[in-house]
Design goal:
Number of helices: 12
Strand order of the largest sheet: 6-7-9-8-10-11
CATH topology of the largest domain: Rossmann fold
Shape: elongated
Length: 335
């Protein structure tokens, strides 16, 4: 990145905008310093950001937003992150490095002088420690070019500050996980509309992480279809096969669509209302019978009598008769 502000009336910053409160505030602090701003919003298979908030903010402050989807490259990083995982399956350091590299590419295309993020020192124990923040900058080729307005006074002076593009005295020294300083700043800046904290990235969710860990241990790879399957239903493991059972109509429709699109084996009860069940991997007859027992357990059918289950495998339908699986056995198979 080269400073381009001498050829323009005002400096240009590229802000990483998730739509959360921190990123909105950081962008507003830079806008107040007579700096033009464009933004970049990253989407991954596990997180899309606060889209409604981003649209409102972009329209209100007339900011151009570059939307970037990180797909297969992101999945390869998740499978084997050089800096490891956080408390769950969250490779936050390598995620941030990848995002910063992509942001650098966009910044160079639009002629941005520096990059802005809403990061707060020590807000996240894995990726927002001082030494880790600086490590991420170096590995992304952005050393000294990333301004974090909310915690800037606690971090080394950036090139934008040294060049006089940003007045350091107007930046802040927020640290830690308390949200009160940001809420007070929002009130001061007149930012009345911002989202409440949400679940965020699925990779920090314990249940999803357990499913993903099981998948990677057995498959060693990850595709967008795999992620779509990991996001839906109840998951069970029977030897080398995985069984996914829908929890409601939306999930049943999703599983049925994926089954038909990819040719997966699936089943459902013949005469009673119940789930769509996908059978993945090595699905011999013993596996299919057990999957049928699970399907009956989650259906409206009687649990103490044989029930007919329709199985579609390789485009051919057949009937398996099964009783509901024992609850203790069911739990032993759950991922």
């Amino acid at each position: 990145m080269k400073c381009c502000w001498l050829s323009r009336n005002r400096p240009l910053a590229l802000a990483l905008l998730s739509g959360g409160l921190d990123s909105l505030l950081a962008t507003m602090l830079v806008l107040e310093q007579n700096v033009d701003v464009e933004a970049i919003n990253f989407m991954t298979p596990f997180y899309i950001g606060e889209l409604e908030s981003i649209r409102w903010f972009s329209k209100t402050f007339k900011i151009k937003v570059h939307r970037v989807f990180l797909g297969d490259e992101y999945l390869r990083m998740v499978v084997d992150p050089p800096h490891g995982y956080g408390s769950q399956m969250n490779p936050c350091i390598d995620c941030r490095i990848l995002m910063f590299k992509k942001a650098r590419e966009i910044a160079e295309k639009v002629g941005a002088d520096f990059i802005v993020t809403g990061e707060v020192l020590n807000e996240r124990p894995f990726s927002q420690r001082r030494n880790v923040m600086l490590l991420i900058e170096r590995e992304a080729g952005l050393e000294g070019k990333v301004l974090r307005p909310l915690s800037a006074k606690l971090l080394p002076e950036t090139e934008a500050e040294k060049a006089g593009l940003i007045d350091r005295s107007k930046l802040l020294a927020i640290r830690g996980r308390r949200r009160r300083p940001q809420i007070e700043l929002a009130e001061k800046l007149g930012l009345e509309r911002y989202p409440t904290p949400s679940g965020g990235c699925l990779l920090t969710d314990p249940e999803f992480s357990r499913r993903l860990r099981d998948h990677l241990e057995r498959e060693g790879k990850l595709t967008l279809t795999d992620v779509a399957l990991l996001k839906v239903g109840r998951h069970f493991r029977i030897n080398r096969a995985k069984i996914i059972v829908g929890r409601n109509k939306r999930e049943n429709d999703r599983l049925l669509s994926l089954a038909r699109l990819h040719g997966f084996t699936y089943m459902k009860t013949a005469e009673y209302k119940g789930p769509v069940t996908l059978c993945l991997g090595r699905t011999n007859r013993n596996v299919l019978v057990k999957a049928a027992e699970i399907t009956v357990q989650y259906s409206d059918s009687p649990k103490d009598t044989p029930v007919r289950v329709i199985v579609i495998k390789d485009g051919i339908g057949k009937i398996i008769t099964a009783r509901a699986i024992n609850v203790d056995e069911l739990e032993s198979l759950r991922i």
